[in-house]
Each structure stands twice: as C-alpha cells, then as structure tokens.
Amino acid sequence: MDPDDNVPVIVYYDTTHKTLKIARGQNSQPNGSGEWNITSILPTNSFSGQYVTMKAGSNGDLFIAYYKVSTGDLMFIHASDVDGTGAGVQYSFDNPVTVDNEGAVGKWPDIFLVNGNPVISYINATQAGTFSGLKLVRYTGDESSWEDAADWEYEIVPAESAVFDKRTNIVGLDSGDVTVDNWNIAIGYASSRFDIVYRQLEQ
C-alpha cells in the first residue's frame, strides 16, 4: 500500500514474459484490470523476478528483492515514491544491483526496513539441508545511491538446525527500541520445524 496516496501496489513475476512487473491501483479499491497501472520493471525474458518480496518505506519509496534464476543471484531494486492517482502514474526504478552472488543464493527472500534501510533474509540453495543455508544481507550506505554493490554486506546466519529450501521471514527493530535479550533482528526459517534466529546488528 502506498502510504501517501492509499492505493495498493503489487510486484510480481510474469511467467509468460519471464520478467518482473508492478501493478499500482488507480484508486484505493481498483475494480478490474482497467483500474490498475501495470508496467514492466525489467526487460522481457530477463529471467529475473522469481521469489519477489517488497516493502514500502514511510515516504512511499519501494524496496524490492528478488531471485535472478539465470545466474542464481540475489538482486535488489529501488524506486522513489510517486504522487497521485489515476491512469498513467508510474514508478521510476533505479538500476538493479546484485547484492549476493556467492553460490545459488536468493530464493525465498524477505525484506524488512531497519531505520529506513533494507535488511534481507534468504536461502543459499547450495547449502540447503545444512546449518549454513540461511543468509542475510543489509544496506550500509548513506542512501545517496542504492545501486552500489559495495554498500551491501552479506553473511551466513548461524542457524541452530538444518535449513530447508523454503520461505524465510524477517522482522527488525529501529535503533532506540530495546528487547530483553538485546536483539534487533529476528529471522524465521523452515527446518524439521519452524525455527527463529535472533541477531544483534550494529546500527
């Protein structure tokens, strides 16, 4: 949901054209396909956009993570907020950036904003079934650009059980928020049960 204009926003993978697309409602309750503005984020046949996840910032910016199946990489793309409703309102996207390409990485991502900056959990498929199958990447730049791979840091999350090749979930806390156990990131993952890892990230 766009927080400024109160219209629904959906990002999805088009299996026919093998690309990432976005649909923005022309009003708060669009009725039928004619009341959505639908555009491609990436070129047709880019083989990018599977397992897509998105968060909208408080100012309406879009933060999107997805899997590029042709290379087995985790990708990120950002779009600044747009204002207005009705036909023709479209986002302008930055260039996509590869935030992790070590192995077959990027399936089942989930994204959360901590102090306005994205933190992403995801699966390393080459290590699925081991204790090293869960990864995390976060943006550490100054928000002047979202396209520089050097502004992203990834790590293997120390799981307490073998990580299955299934969905991950992440939630976090902004600086100033305190927990009893002194954590600011929690990541859920599938093993022989549902497990959670708590992490303390520097802010």
Task: Detail the topology: elements first, then pairings.
Elements: E1 9-14, E2 19-25, E3 36-40, E4 48-56, E5 62-68, E6 73-79, E7 97-100, E8 105-114, E9 117-124, E10 134-139, E11 152-156, E12 169-172, E13 185-190, E14 194-199
Q: What does this protein look like?
A:
The protein has 203 residues and is mostly beta strands. The chain has one domain (9-199). Helices cover 0% and strands 44% of the residues. The strands form 4 sheets. Strands 4-5-6-7 form a 4-stranded antiparallel beta sheet, with no helix packed on it. A 4-stranded antiparallel beta sheet has the order 8-9-10-11, with no helix packed on it. Strands 1-2-3 form a 3-stranded antiparallel beta sheet, with no helix packed on it. The protein is globular, with a radius of gyration of 17 Å. The model has no long low-confidence stretch (mean pLDDT 93).
Outline of the structure:
This protein is mainly beta and 203 residues long. It has strands at 9-14, 19-25, 36-40, 48-56, 62-68, 73-79, 97-100, 105-114, 117-124, 134-139, 152-156, 169-172, 185-190, 194-199. It has no helices and 14 strands.
